Amino acid sequence: MSAATTIEYRIPPQPRFRAFIHRLREGDEVAHVLTLVFAALILLLTSMLVYELWVNSRLSRTKFGWMFLWTRVWDPIFGNFGAAPFIYGTLVTAIVSLVIAVPLGLAGSIFLAELAPPKLSDSIAFLIDLLAAVPSVIYGLLGIFIVVPVMRTTLGPVLKSALGFLPLFQGRNYGVGFLTGGIVLAIMVVPFIISVSREVLLTVPSEQREAALALGSTRWESTWKVVIPWARTGIMGSIFLALARALGETMAVTMVIGNDPKISASLFAPGYTIAAVIANEFTEATGDLYLSALIELGLVLFLMTFILNGLARLLIVATERGGGHP
Amino acid sequence: MSRLRLIWRKSLNAVMLTLTGVAAFAVVSVLFLILGYLLWNGGKSLNWDFFTKLPKPVGETGGGMANAIVGSLKLLLLAAVMGLPVGLMAGVYLAEFGGKAFSFVIRYTTDLLNGVPSIVIGIFAYSLAVLPVKHFSTFAGGVALGIMVIPITVRSTEEFLRAVPTSLREGAMALGASKWRTIVTVVLPAASGGIITGMLLSLARVAGETAPLLFTAFSNRYWSPGWGQPIASLPVMIYTYAIAPYDDWHRQAWAAGLVLLALVLIANLGCRLVLNRRGAIRSV
Asked: Distance from B29 to chain A by nearest Cα, in Å?
């Protein structure tokens, strides 16, 4: 009799216990699903972004087709819109900025990763991170009041007399233009190149350096011939990242580019970029076609940076996983 | 011959290494140049009126940007309310729940969203919050900034959650806590300092954004009560004042630039010092 009761006591009330476990699991599942919803929201937002750009540029896409990309006219009054001057301006300013920023940034990151003592390197990297945090409108402010006057009075004339035989440095120098835009952009993207490249260089195993040094190479040779080739994929990634940033940068360029939708060979000439024209004309766009042409410009800009960013991330991931070299 | 070559190699070494140092210091000096120039020009033009008065009508000197300062704060509040919860939850998902493939997709998308030019985010927010109601509003500006807050918050939250030692989680689980209970009562509090700092950093970044506000929050020369009207913000004011042809507006642009830069840099400095001391994160 007593044995039977004991057995009955030993067996826990199964269904209730199971239900309890179940509820607990359910709590986990609820939390899982809840956070998943928010994570999926990011996917949703990004796809909505593409969708809205696509839908809202429909008028312009159907009217101009692919010709939009290489038409050189931007005429809001008669409703003729072409993106060529803006694409040109965006690419030229970005290229100018890279020509300045890549050597500077690469040299800076080599110094920080290979030469500077860790403490100094960390504090400089810290300051460079701060530099990257400066709002772009501040760069624009300094661009208008420092870079433009310097360009007009000093740098422009110097370049003209030294390199004036090149078509790049001919024509009138207004102070505003492609070159000024490129210089301001260069100042803005250098911090990104330095901090990403530094991280990449720091992942190169020190055996590589030691082996090169042991074979009798100088510090510079070990850096240039061993470390840089090892890290080149990641460095390319940092440059792509900087390029994407330079393409999409709005305010600083808008303030110093001159805002003139023309294609000129001279870097002194005023120009226009995609981001700048959107910033300037979006609120004034009268008529649906005008607005949709501006949104299509936004779509073009989005695709350019989207592709570059995608490539850059892949390259950086590839290097940090230790690949990217034979 | 070989001796000449050795001299050449050594001098090349010395020259190139010096150049790298020069480059690094040149870049850093830009920061001090910016700071110095803004302090000099902004300091001269900063006065009490700047913080307490409304902008004067065109042509009159004086006045301030009280409405833009309040406007920037209101926009940041909206951005925080809309963006931070999404970033936090998605970060928790990535660190605690995510499967491999889907997490990769989310992370990749987050990085891409982070790289979308701010002016394009502006167009997006315009089509979400301005087109349907046909007028600019504080709310639309908040949407634009809120979207920009998300990616940075996600990545910093994830990184800080991952930095919490597994032993803490196991301890909580061993005491019988369920997974979500472990996360809410143990993991999140342990990482809270870092997570909040990361959020502040993301807000500091969008505080300086101009482009997405141009055609969402627009601007306003007066106070903007409620959330449904155009509103002034410091970055947009700096932009309009800097490109205007009036000296007195330039003066105020410098003052506004100084205030904005001071806010952004102090927030960054504070956050990064906290982060560095914790040693938990390299870059946000």
From this structure: 9
Structural domain total, chain A: 2
ipTM of the complex: 0.90
**pLDDT-based confidence at residue A324 (cuts at 50, 70, 90):** very low
Give the number of other Cβ atoms within 10 Å of residue A10's Cβ: 7
**Within a 10 A sphere around the Cβ of B271, how many other Cβ atoms?**
23
Q: How many CA atoms lie within 13 A of A279 on its CB side?
A: 29
Whether residues A69 and A26 share a domain: the answer is no
Q: Tokens in use for B257?
A: 């630039």
The pLDDT of residue A322 is 61
pLDDT at A285: 84
Note whether A16 and A85 are same-domain residues: no
Distance from CA of B1 to the nearest CA of A (A): 17
B80 is a domain residue: yes
Alpha helices in chain A (DSSP H): 2-10, 14-56, 58-64, 67-70, 84-110, 118-133, 136-142, 148-150, 156-163, 178-202, 206-214, 219-222, 228-248, 251-256, 274-281, 288-320
Same domain, residue pair B196 and B121: yes
Closest Cβ opposite residue B253 in set A114, A141, A190: A141
CATH number at residue A171: 1.10.3720.10
Question: Rounded mean pLDDT of A28-54?
Answer: 92
Please name the residue that has the structure tokens 């502006």: B122
Nearest to B117 among A27, A35, A275 (CB): A275
Residue B284 has what pLDDT?
A: 36
Interface residue of A250, A254, A301 to substitute, partner B, most B CBs within 10 Å: A250
- Structural domain including A27 reads 2-56
Q: Measured between CB atoms, which of A49, A144, A301 is closest to B124?
A: A49
Pick from B20, B34, B41 the residue to mutate for testing the A interface (most A CBs within 10 Å). Answer: B20
* Residues B84, B8 within the same domain: no
**B114 and B235 inside one domain:** yes
Whether residues B69 and B206 fall in one domain: yes
**Structural domain boundaries enclosing B39:** 2-45
B93/A38 touch (CB, cutoff 8 Å), yes or no: yes
Instruction: Give the pLDDT confidence of A97-130 residue by residue, as tens digits.
Output: 999 999 999 999 999 999 999 999 999 999 998 9
d(C-alpha B223, C-alpha B67), whole Å: 5
Size of interface A-B (CB pairs under 8 A): 271
Query: Are A141 and B118 inside 8 Å of each other by CB?
Result: no
Q: Are A13 and A73 contained in the same domain? A: no
